[in-house]
Amino acid sequence: MASSAMVTANQLIIMAELKLFRTWSSCFSLRVVWALDLKGIQYDTIFEDLSNKSSLLLQYNPVYNKVPVLVHNGKPLLESLVILEYIDETWKQTPLLPEDPSERATTRFWAKFGDDKVLPSIWNAFIKQGKDQEEAIVTAQENLGCVERQLTGKKILQGRDNWTCRPCFWLAC
């Protein structure tokens, strides 16, 4: 191979086939879009109609049949937090997580807290009615207050070169 045609393994990974199955409204899909865009990774988007799921989505995600699904060279990756970690480990430029292991673990904790506590409590505040809704609103406010206390006094979204903007990618909407 001539030297002008040589490519590094990293360039081959970047040039590889990458497809993202998503919807316009999924905050879990958007966290993947933001991560790919932040890292400057080119990918194809396949928008799914969740009321009429494509055979490809069902093939790539036979367990949950939901988005997002990132397909890299024919290999499907499922669940947005898992996809984010894969993206960060595969494309090293512009890390999504801080270098310090303790700070990485803390970021992962808050992402899980957002998925397991914050989002369900907000959803319940919208869909419940009467006394159940009142209780759900209190729970959502408590969960949001917990996140707010963690963010108070911290410089978030400072810029692309400061890791403190990156935990936002780990929190879904």
Polypeptide structure, described:
- This protein has 7 helices and 4 strands, in the order αβαβαββαααα.
- It has helices at residues 9-15, 27-39, 55-60, 80-90, 101-127, 130-151, 167-170; strands at residues 18-22, 44-47, 69-72, 75-78.
- The protein has a 4-stranded mixed sheet with strand order 2-1-3-4, covered by helices on one side.
- Strand 3 and strand 4 form a beta hairpin.
- The radius of gyration is 19 Å and the shape is flat.
- It starts with 8 loop residues before the first helix and ends with a helix.
- Its EC number is 2.5.1.18.
- Belongs to the GST superfamily.
- One of its GO terms (cellular component) is cytosol.
- Is involved in the conjugation of reduced glutathione to a wide number of exogenous and endogenous hydrophobic electrophiles.
